[in-house]
Amino acid sequence: MFRSNSFMTLAAAAALIAVLAGCNQQKQAAGQPQAGGPPEVSVITIGPQRLTVTTELPGRTAAYRVAEIRPQVSGIVLKRLFREGSDVKAGDQLYQIDPATYEASLASAQADVQKAEANLQAARNKAARYGDLVKNSVVSKQDFDDVQATLKQNEAQVAAAKAAYNLASINLNYTKVFAPISGRIGKSAVTEGALVTASQATALATIQQFDPIYVDVTQTASQLMKLREDMATGRIRPAEPGKIPVTLFLNSNGDDTPYPAKGELQFSDVTVDAGTSSVQLRAVFPNPNKDLLPGLFVRARVEQGVAENAITVPQAAVSRGPDGSARVWVVGADNKAAQRTIKTERAVGNVWLVSDGLAAGERVVVEGLQKVKPGAEVKPVPAQNALAALPEKAASAR
Hints:
Elements: H1 2-29, E1 40-45, E2 49-69, E3 75-80, E4 87-88, E5 93-97, H2 100-135, H3 141-174, E6 176-178, E7 183-185, E8 195-196, E9 205-220, H4 221-233, E10 236-237, E11 245-252, E12 255-258, E13 263-268, E14 278-285, E15 297-314, E16 319-320, E17 326-331, E18 337-348, E19 351-356, E20 363-367, E21 379-382
Parallel strand pairs: 1-21
Antiparallel strand pairs: 1-20, 2-9, 2-15, 3-5, 3-8, 4-7, 5-6, 7-9, 9-14, 10-15, 11-12, 11-13, 11-15, 13-14, 15-19, 16-17, 17-18, 17-20, 18-19
Helix pairs in contact: 2-3
């Protein structure tokens, strides 16, 4: 019995020693400092750099020009002269409306013009004769004035008849419906034999031009005002004077595929949307192969300017305090760590653009933050992790 108890006691002690050894190994594996020296942390040295300030915004494509085809005269559609979904050119005939009644109206108007011109000629001849007779007092002055008035009435009748003829000619031409712009035409709302009316609400078809194509995006008013303030103070200057390049990304198979051609920002709207506090921006892109269709959801990267001597810090090095303030660990010349509150303006790729709290030459901890304690000595080594790398050339501000 005594031997059994002694054996159990030794077994329990051996198990306890094994558990303690395992815990010690786990602590060492977790990166806790060893008794041999200060903990090792990865740091980067802050340096000013030239940073392209861009903004990534969601948006949708829109046709460059849209024309809704409507009839300007009433009648029966005799022919449809295009293939739905095809490309048409400005001036191509799309529909033929029955011209019979309009041809008859034109012929009648032409006869009225001839009649009015004949009456005018007779009035002119009479007025000429009365001019000679009134000089010799053969006719009275009143008769001569009446003849002159009749002449002017006949001239007015000729002008009215010609105007009616022009209107009839215009209406006859309107029986041929032409494409006002070049682009791709959609489905037809009518077929041969359909009755259409002048200026009807329903369009016969719609033509959309999407080479080039618009991309409409929205940006918050606060971001736009901040950018203008930075440009006014000189902190950010335009990337290209008079031109703001835009890069487009398409969501293809879950991946953002860059569009091969670059666009240019056209304008910023002058009105802030009261519901979203945002401003609409419009960019224009070349679309020679018709790869972009109107209504497509895209992401646009707007290169809004360049910040010279910008101070950035990797996002992995920044933590947030209870009040939401941004904080980093800075390693001093004595290799002792201290926490520093900084002011971040915007996220640019994988870094924060810092406006206050850091200076060039200071060392910031980017890895091993769990090892750092206020005032404790650390062993700084240059960071090799990609998270500590400089921002990409085409970084985005959110």
